[in-house]
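Sanity check

After download, print the first record. It should look like this:
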Amino acid sequence: MGNYDVSQRTKDGMFNATSLMKQWNESKGGSKKEMGDFFRTKSTKEFIEVIESDSKDGNSPYLKTRGKYGGTWMHPYLFIDFAMWINPRFKLEVIKFVYDQLIKNRHLAGDNYKTLSSSGVTLNGYDFSKVAKALQHIVFDKTGKGLRQLGTQEQLEELADIEAKLAWAIDMGYIRSFQELMIELRKMYNSKYNLTHNLIK
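Expected structure tokens:
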């Protein structure tokens, strides 16, 4: 991770926070950090509670061990929060990555919709509005304006993937009519939500 070595345990996926903090404290120009200071902050305590409540087994997101590989080991979510606390540069990189990925996926979803529309108009009776609403039903389970702008990274990736696959299927001749396209969209919706009825008209 940048200039730092990061240790992760295979058996539970936890990261060695003590090792990272030691490397930071030994680096030139790095302000000294104490593990206790991180755990004493209100935001850390609240974040730990949220992770615990979200966990299926209710286990603590961190543990302390002794021995050769001893130290404080953290759940990946808590470790990222810890790394951002310990290193402002890493915090910036994480924020930039998340921001850039969201922007990238929004643009990709928009570009793929244009590609799908270009392929779709070759089908007799292609209805832009019905296709757009069907895609919203599948990805967001609702329709409305601005959903793409509010979508999560996972939703935007799903939207872009569906649009690309449908455009390819039309171009390759697997979908030969607008009716067949709508049938495929209904199948996607019903498969995702395990339904036997259709919201997509």
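If your output differs, re-run the checksum step. Summary of this record's structure: The chain has two domains: 15-86, 93-193.
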